[in-house]
Amino acid sequence: MDSYRLQQTSSGEFKLINEDGELDPIKDLGTGRPTGGELTPLSEIIHFMNEHYGADFTDADKVKHFTEDMALRLFDNDALVKAANPEINSEDNFRLAFNEFFDDTLEDMIESNHEIYLKIVDDEELKDLFKKSMFNRVYGQLTTAEAHA
Question: What is the domain partition of the chain in residue ranges?
């Protein structure tokens, strides 16, 4: 049976490598975006690190990562960034676009951390609170960035 260990690559991604330290060859250099390969869920990485390295990552760490990951995905959405331009859209119009992108992004994150995803979609009050918080963060940063652009 092969022995594997966790190693962080230069892109920040964690991969399990064999005892010889071999990783798959690099593909799609320079894109700066995930290549669509299957990602390891955060909960599995945290469990592995807690078990094998004595780390003590908590649920709060998971929530923080999930929130930051979602924000980055929303900031990376060109259509949403354009919709935040106050010269083109009001805050209310941006909210309509944001709500659609939020729901789509949340669905895309089902594999990122299934446990947190389920808590958000199963509890309407929590979902509304999370959505409002993300809206304020994204709209605030995008409109501030627009003002400085």
Answer: 4-53, 59-148
